[in-house]
Amino acid sequence: MNRSEYTHKAAELDFLEKQATAPGISKLTLMSIQARIEQARAFLEDNGKHAYRPAKVRLTYRGVPVWGTHGVLAEFGATATKAFSVAITAIAASVSGSLADKGPIPNRLSNQLLITGPARGSFGFELEEIPADKQLDIEGTTPVSQAIDILTELLEATTKSDEELSEPVSRLADRAIAAVSDFLSELSENDASCALTTNTRRFQFSDVEQVRRSKARLSRDNIKEDDETFTGTFVGVLPDKRVFEFKTVGGEVIYGRIASEIASPNDINGHLYTQVTIQVTARRIGSSNPRYMLKALPWT
């Protein structure tokens, strides 16, 4: 069973329940509809334990643009939420391995968010991913779902140590990081902060000063990249997770990620314990240890 089948059955149930409340319906027709409703409910219940549910996030604002309990400035609400949406589409493209340094963001339309309503109890919005065009396994995750989780993790990490921040930063392209920084700029320039609530976690900036510090930590001045060369042997690889383990001739063991440009990371398994020289990009956040990225295989 896939995502399309599940969502189709859920839509059918919604339609049948509306039909059952229509005025003037005959008794026999109602009995038939009720039987189909029970069948649809049973189907969804049997298949719903690991059912796909669209990713959702609750984005709320605090600060100068928020007027007490009355409202939020429309211009700020629109521009800040747009910047948040752009950050999500950029991260989604980054984790899919299709985000270039310049040009249109790939799959931007399908990776956008829907505003499904106002955030209750505060000023902000309930946002939800647009249903994907292609079918996914019922337990599948989408790039948008991953992007929401990564963005929430990244924003929280900007308030922690350099070492903790370097982990989510190491998974993203420079352009995606810049998009997150642009969102924080929109907040700081308007003396505002935000809170994010997802299905699995919640993060809230304490105030606008913390937003400004977080933005500074995502700046190019704080994120350094250098090309480094190592000679040694690959001693392990997880192709699905795109991570590798490499032991240098000096005995140092390094771990790193495999860039999306490498189409078949499993090829490394055929060259384990064979001495090679690799070139990696080392990314450092402030005083953190380097995070390595392998962008090409040494034998190609």
Name its key features:
single chain, 300 residues, alpha+beta, OB fold (Dihydrolipoamide Acetyltransferase, E2P), 2 domains, 7 helices, 37% helix, 25% strand
Number of domains: 2
The general outline is flat
Give helix % range: 25-40%
Question: For the residues shown, what is the average pLDDT?
Answer: 88
State the distance separating the first and last CA atoms: 40 Å
Number of strands: 12
| Beta-strand residue percentage | 25-35%
Structural class: alpha+beta
Give the H and E element order.
Answer: HHEEEHEEHHHEEHEEEEE
Major β-sheet annotation: 5 strands, antiparallel
Quickly count the helices: 7
Overall radius of gyration: 24 Å
Low-pLDDT runs of 5+ residues are 135-139
User: Biggest sheet, strands in spatial order?
Assistant: 4-5-1-6-7
Architecture overview:
The structure is a single chain. The protein has helices at 3-20, 27-47, 74-95, 143-157, 162-170, 174-189, 208-217, and strands at residues 56-63, 66-67, 71-72, 113-118, 123-129, 192-197, 202-204, 223-238, 243-248, 253-258, 276-285, 291-294. With 300 residues, the protein is of the alpha+beta class. It folds into 2 domains: 56-217, no CATH class; 223-294, OB fold (Dihydrolipoamide Acetyltransferase, E2P) (Beta Barrel). The longest helix is centred in the first third of the chain and has 22 residues, at 74-95. The chain starts with a helix and ends in a 6-residue tail after the last strand.
